[in-house]
Amino acid sequence: MLTQIEEKIIQYAKNPADGLKIAVIGGGTGLSTLLRGLKLYSNHLAAIVTVADNGGSSGMLREDLGILPPGDIRNCILALADTEPLMNDLLNFRFHDGRLKGQNFGNLLIAAMNGISGNFCDAVRNVSKVLAVKGRVLPVSLQNIQIGARLADRTVIQGESAIGHRYATPDNEIAELFMEPADATALPEAVEALKAADVIVIGPGSLYTSIIPNLLFADICQAIALSRAPRIYVCNIMTQPAETMGYDAARHLAALLKHAQRQTARGFVDYCIVNNAWIDRQLINRYQLESAVPVLAERGSVEILGTKMVEAPLACVNNGAIRHDHTILARSVLSLALNHLNCADKPAARSKKAYGSAV
């Protein structure tokens, strides 16, 4: 027999318009994976996306046109759009020759829309309308920020790309992330989306280049800290050599809390979801060649940080890479949220002002 929570999740799957208001925060592949799962259960999604990227196609457009980096924004828009496979391939197409070599067509579309819109946020909103996105994609800020990292040996690395591609050793781990300008403000719509959310999800994604950059904004941290919604951190499945070499789940969480609690002394994360699915040994061995290993999770070391640890079989293999299973992850988030809110047998209140469709 199905539980009330299971029945509620099935109801959301049948009619996502009845779904919870969910704010997710992060960037990169992890955030778009989560959104692909959550959109099956709710039309009321707000994705708050980092704008710290300065590498690749996004970095080129940022330097040439002075716009905010569109890459992570593009991935989130595509995750929430109901596009035909051909359109999806087109928006992900990367030019291989000529002066456009290295550029992504979807990024160019956002850049062009920025040229005819009032600002970058309007450009993102207009592209979302064109692609009939359900939910909203919001840059965390409209300010031109750069991030830097101070290492354990006191070396300073400037720029998201340099941080994510540095050569790391166990004795020069990242000690602190910072942002310039330090007093940059978040997009008001992003702050309001967090305040209005029934559920707040942080991650998954690169800890120091996708997640923590969003938490350097004091107003973002205050909104999360003051929220009465369940606040869920989705831990990565594998470590990343440049950022989290040797990290277990507790160290991921501790780094997140360290940066967030500089902005607020209040509690910040209620739950930490970790993977407990078996991973093929041959695949692990291949990852170890690049100094990446599965993220281990020990309940006591996580829960001593004031956060309840929840295990789920999240790992799957996609094109030879270990990824979160978007459906299992979404159902795990919803199950946690509904249990926390104790609202399995009553509809969630919604604020259309904060969580209306982008159309």
Structural key phrases:
359 residues; 16 helices; alpha/beta; 12 strands; 3-stranded antiparallel sheet
Structure description:
There is one protein chain. The protein has 359 residues and is an alpha/beta fold. The protein is 40% helix and 16% strand. The two termini are 39 Å apart. The longest helix is centred in the last third of the chain and has 16 residues. About 2% of the residues have low confidence. Strands 3-2-1-7-8-9-10 form a 7-stranded parallel sheet, with helices on both faces. The radius of gyration is 19 Å and the shape is globular. The protein is built from 16 helices and 12 strands.
- Quaternary: single chain
Question: Helix/strand/pairing class, anyone?
Answer: alpha/beta
Termini gap: 39 Å
Query: DSSP strand (E) fraction?
Result: 15-25%
Rg: 19 Å
Number of helices: 16
Task: Identify the overall geometry.
Answer: globular
Biggest sheet overview: 7 strands, parallel
Helix/strand order, N-terminal first: HEHEHHHHHEEEHEHEHHEHEHHEEEHH
Percent helix range: 40-55%
Return the average pLDDT rounded to an integer.
91
Residue windows where pLDDT falls under 50 for at least 5 positions: 347-354
Q: Give the beta-strand count.
A: 12
Going across the major beta sheet, what is the strand order? 3-2-1-7-8-9-10
